[in-house]
Amino acid sequence: MATFFGEVLSVYSRAVEEDDDDLDDENEDERIHREIEEKREVHIVWCPEVAQSLEDSGSNKLQCSDLIIAVGTNAAGFLSAYVLNTESWDAVGHVSLWNERSRGSSRQSIAPLPGEPACLFYRHRDNPAVFGCLQKRGLSVMVLSDSPVAEYKTPDYLYGSAVPFLRSLKSSASKGQALCPALEQPNILTGLPAAVLSHCQVHQIPAVLYQCYTDVISPDSITMETFKPALLCLSKLVKLEPCLSADVLRKFAIITEAQSNLYT
Amino acid sequence: MAARYDRAITVFSPDGHLFQVEYAQEAVKKGSTAVGIRGKDIVVLGVEKKSVAKLQEERTVRKICTLDDHVCMAFAGLTADARIVINRARVECQSHRLTVEDPVTVEYITRHIATLKQRYTQSNGRRPFGISALIVGFDCDGTPRLYQTDPSGTYHAWKANAIGRSAKTVREFLEKNYTDEAIATDNESIKLAIKALLEVVQSGGKNIELAVIRRNQPLKLLESKEIETLVTEIEKEKEDEAEKKKQKKST
Fold this sequence. Notes:
The structure holds two protein chains of two kinds.
Chain A: H1 23-38, E1 41-46, H2 48-57, E2 66-71, H3 73-82, E3 89-98, E4 118-124, E5 130-131, E6 140-148, E7 165-170, H4 191-202, E8 207-214, H5 221-225, H6 228-234, H7 246-252
Parallel strand pairs in A: 2-5, 2-6, 6-8
Antiparallel strand pairs in A: 1-3, 3-4, 7-8
Helix pairs in contact in A: 3-7
Chain B: H1 19-28, E1 34-38, E2 42-48, E3 64-68, E4 71-77, H2 79-100, H3 106-119, E5 131-138, E6 144-149, E7 155-157, E8 160-163, H4 167-177, H5 186-198, E9 208-214, E10 220-221, H6 224-250
Antiparallel strand pairs in B: 1-2, 1-8, 2-9, 3-4, 4-5, 5-6, 6-7, 9-10
Subunit structure (chain B): The 26S proteasome consists of a 20S proteasome core and two 19S regulatory subunits.
Keywords (chain B): Coiled coil, Cytoplasm, Nucleus, Proteasome
GO biological process, one term (chain B): ubiquitin-dependent protein catabolic process
């Protein structure tokens, strides 16, 4: 493999290992890992009226007809700015978690702060069947996520003007056209969006995912606007802010341009 | 796929790409637009001004710099890399004056900058400079010149060119509008540069900075009032054009 000046390649020895005394140390490492694994927790907290309706429904499941999930700062910013901003949404619960990689807060009753790994659920006031989380039959799911364009693999050279752009993936139960080209091979999805889509595919829930590839690291208004084609699907379900003032977008986007003197 | 051949500068990919150099050209696209126009008796450099933070001194955020009395350049890309290149170029200009007792020609200093950039694409442990430069000036014999360099170390002479964020749009505009009438007078050349920038700059003349060199005169930065006047003139001309077209259509 081509290497650069200063790169250190770890070389694996093919010498046969004798039984050595390091076994204890390894066991200790394993033990510590196991202990930390057991400490992993996921907490779901609902607001009182949803908790009540959960109890009332008996099967501990919530009615939901449409589910919209946003993963990533730009996708979440898009939803916050264009959809949740119309003020007819209520925060009805949250999930917070703790594992050895992403440490959430240990408080369970207080809503998670931005920056902590967590998920906030919002429910539409007028149409409580439209929801921001969990599974049920008769459900359709839309996932928005963002990803750096450096991870987009293509045989052609990508010119700067094409970025940011959208690609889509659908579960086979999903009818209807996606509003942007499908994600080409060999690109793959990972993480929560992939888990959601796999789940929907296995349980034959119609789901569509929009992945935005962007070259900006922080939340950015231009990237958020790239999700606009998804608005067309959403507008059947919820009221949207059709034209957003720059001020609203700025609330959700961190303006780093003026402070960054890296490029002139 | 670029994955295995784009981490080292000194490695070609099987299909002949130097990926680090090509990625350096992407860094250039992150800088704001700069345009250069070669007129008959004037050379013009126009840049899109970056928005400056509230507490920042505006005059220290300059994209246009002199290299010598008769040569100046505008850059797009990494600020720090530009500073290094400009320093080396300025030293070379003075060294040339002392050694040869003549001011540099624009082509000489451009070739020096381009050679410097190329050296950094061929040694290990260093990355290429992430800037493109537009170098303008007059030679001793009075000919106006405009050159452009890029991170790979190539340089070419141009009649008009643009670098930076929306360079493609501006270049297309220039290809359509750079005519002999458009550069007939000094004022017309300046207006062509402003018109080219207005294609891509938001909020008009406030965000444009302009510099001109006339034959045997040092670099002159236009004041914002002058730029505003020219922008108003251009807008009026556009309205008159639109009116004429409307009248032609109705008759």
